[in-house]
Amino acid sequence: MYNEIGQQAILGVLSHAFFIGITFFALRAVMIEKIVKKHHVFQVQLLYILMSIAIGTTVSDFFLSMSNWSKQLPYLFM
To answer: Tell me: the pLDDT tens digits for 6-58?
Structure first.
């Protein structure tokens, strides 16, 4: 019981970190600097980080939900 909860926790942490990193990498291709006022470098960096967290956790939650739902599918046929 506790082992399964621990495995789900580590999977969730790793999944969130992975997707936040992937999202940050992808967002670097978008040139937000051209939209934002000049001399606001810190705000743009903070915006990249916050957008990465928001998008990355949403995508991670989607994949974790799909994983959990796919584990529950066999109960449909019992």
So the answer is: 999 999 999 999 999 999 999 999 887 778 788 888 888 899 999 999 999 99
Q: Which residue has the tokens 């939900």?
A: 65
Half-sphere exposure at residue 52, Cβ-oriented, CA atoms within 13 angstroms: 21
Under a CB-based contact definition with an 8 Å cutoff, are residues 47 and 32 in contact? yes
pTM: 0.84
Is residue 64 within 8 A of residue 58, CB to CB? The reply is: no
List of long-range contacts for 8-14, beta carbons under 8 Å, 24+ apart: 11/64, 12/60, 12/64
Structure-token pair, residue 76 = 């449909």
49 three-class SS: helix
For residues 56 and 23, is the Cβ–Cβ distance under 8 A? Answer: yes
- Say yes or no to pLDDT of 76 above 90: no
